[in-house]
Specification:
With 434 residues, the chain is mainly β. The protein has 4 helices and 34 strands. The chain is elongated and about 80 Å long. The N terminus and C terminus are likely disordered.
Length: 434
Amino acid sequence: MEKAFNLLLFFALPALVAAQTANISLGSSLVASKDSSPWLSPSKEFAFGFHPLDDQNLFLLAIWFDKIPGKTIVWYANKGKATPAGSKLELGVDGRFTLTDPQGKEIWPNSVVDKAAYAAMLNTGNFIVADNNSNYIWESFNNPTDTMLPTQTMERGRLLSSRRTENSYDKGRFQLRLLPDGNLVLNPIALPTQKAYDAYYISDTYDAANDKFWATLDVDGVFTQYVHPKSPTNGSSWVQSWTPVWFVPQDICSDMKGDLGGGVCGFNSYCTLQSNGRPACQCLPGFSLLDQDDKLSGCKQDYVQTCNPNAPNQEEFFETKSLSNLVWLTSANYEELQPFNEEDCRDSCISDCNCAVAITYNGSCWKKKLPLSGGKVDISTYGKVFIKIPKANLTSSELPSPKAIVEKDQATAILVISIRAQYLLTCYSWQLLQ
């Protein structure tokens, strides 16, 4: 049997919950609706069913903590895709376990689950489908999404995927993988593929013991363990929320160093590590988010940077905004100039059509092109950064084209020739009169 990495040991979590079951018999079903009742574990700690999504007539087939306000979701089916009202989850009399849409089309699971004798929502948070010999033929613990629970194990080669955003359960940009060599790693991926970029964390163990726990790969790529008190202690008020007790990496802004991808915050942005260890993403001046609902989506230019090297005065069309303490370690410099002061560095970037950002420090000037990747705030960096942007509301149609400049130069030449010819003709006529 393939060796597994036991996250119970990894987190040193509490002892196993008593193995109690309340079997769900063949012929049982759930229908997605606001009045639908989930299948509960014997302790009523966990629920399996259709979880309504905010302000939508859509539902997520999921497992959640049922006793906690907010009904925190710990597992979800169908790669996080929502299902419409009227969808049906059924443990058929023929032993098949299926999710169908309102038209009766099977949409999950991807592989056939049949020959079932019963199902159960266990006190551990694991939903199982078993055969007549009580062997599990399918279980949620073997199909993790973004969360691990106490007693759950992860086999080598398995992974967790973050959600795209706080409100979207689609696959996000980060993975937690248990590699065949036993290393537990965190890495970004190149959506929509499974291509894994360089790891920004390699595992170690951690000891903890307290009340209710869960661990999740958050949407920002940080793997976090949370604790929630089961009840008030020593007469204190009950804080009804999850509290982070441990997370990795400690500085995701600095630890993601791969050459590929846009870094934590996506292209043309920069990452600031907050006091709680979470990354805050910001766009550069003159840029805005690609997706206003996704702070990690990266940034795009508000105006297309049209540039003509023959324009007589680029400062009529471009300006710079300056920032400090920013670095892009994974974005290559295409030119280095020295000795160069701040003003020379800024002017050189303005007049250079390839330049999007110039960094000046200690008498040197470095130029970078778009897209920029891996940007972060680094207080140990004292240089100044110049961001080159088109002047406000200046569109590409207002910028002079090479053809316009050539035509202007030709018109000037024709005018000069015409004036000179007229002058010569006047002089010649005057001489004839003399």
